Amino acid sequence: MVMGWSSAASRDVGLVTQALSQMRPPPPTTTWVTYVRCHDDIGWAVADEDAAANGLDAFTHRRFLNDFYSGAFPGSFARGALFQANLVTGDARVSGTAASLCGIEQALELDDRALLGQAVRRLLLLYGLAFSYGGIPLIYMGDEIAQVNDAAYTDDPEHTQDNRWLHRPAMDWAAAERRHDPASVAGMVFEGLRQLGAVRRGLPALRAGGDTRPLWTDDPAVFAYARIHPRKGTFLGLANFGDFATSCDAGILGAAGLRRPWDALAPDGRFGLREGRIQLPGLGMLWLTDD
Q1: What CATH number matches the domain at 2-201, 3.40.1260.10, 3.20.20.80, 3.40.47.40, 3.10.620.30?
Q2: What pTM did the predictor assign?
Q3: Is 287 helix (H, G, I), strand (E, B) or coil?
Q4: Could you report the per-residue pLDDT of 72-126, keeping only the tens digit for each?
């Protein structure tokens, strides 16, 4: 969770690649539970060693993430709030729904369709990681219809001192009714998540018992990860955390062990390969497999 949000803010995947490379795989008879957001605040679990290996200062990067997701950083798309900020140490965590932290709330406030499209793609990109990196993906209530922050928590005297209630809203049943309307925000996000689930169900390599490892690419915005299943084949995921279209060297296919790659999930429904480079749109993802 932390590394996904870090990559979304920085548009750089060096830290997530480094950090996840150091994680031990779960025992083969167990699996992860993966999620983009939960009921709690986001604590920036950035290890000093991982940050240093990536040319970063961990304390400074954590401060950047707090500033970015609380909306204090110039150019931030996020609408979050600092939780339990310590004015002495500078430590803090962040509250906010996934939709608001991804920029959907900002885009709706500005009535900006271009920003809204980016924000929706950003949310689906993060969920694409949760659905494909390995483990059992969870969808926190309201994310499936892009619920934004609920500032009304301050009206409840039992909640007003705890801004985690910002991302614990009552279910918006009116928005839920719009989930099948492709022109609505709820409809765009709901259909995107439904597609992720449908594609995942058809990919045996994503079933329990496999092992996922990050791979370095030649583009700082593109995160690559291969999942090898001893009986079910190989999977390669590519995620462009940058706002703009980019590409990465197609040699990543060989590094992942794909012999006859085909696209299970591709931007605009097609696998773009040009002059030895895999093409990715801004905030786009590509799932390849040889099953």
Answers
A1: 3.20.20.80
A2: 0.96
A3: strand
A4: 999 999 999 999 999 888 899 999 999 999 999 999 999 999 999 999 999 999 9
d(CA 1, CA 278): 26
d(CA 211, CA 134) in angstroms, rounded, equals 8
CB atoms within 10 A of CB 115: 17
- Tokens at residue 147, please? 């619920």
β 136-138/33-35 pair status: parallel
Element (H, E) at 273: strand 273-274
CA 90 – CA 112 distance, rounded (Å): 34
Domain 207-291 superfamily per CATH = Golgi alpha-mannosidase II (2.60.40.1180)
- Please, where are the H alpha helices in the chain? 2-10, 14-21, 48-53, 58-69, 98-102, 104-110, 113-132, 173-177, 185-201, 252-256
Q: Is the fold of 2-201 the same as that of 207-291?
A: no
Please compute, for residue 66, the number of CA atoms within 13 A of its CA located in the half-sphere on the CB side.
20
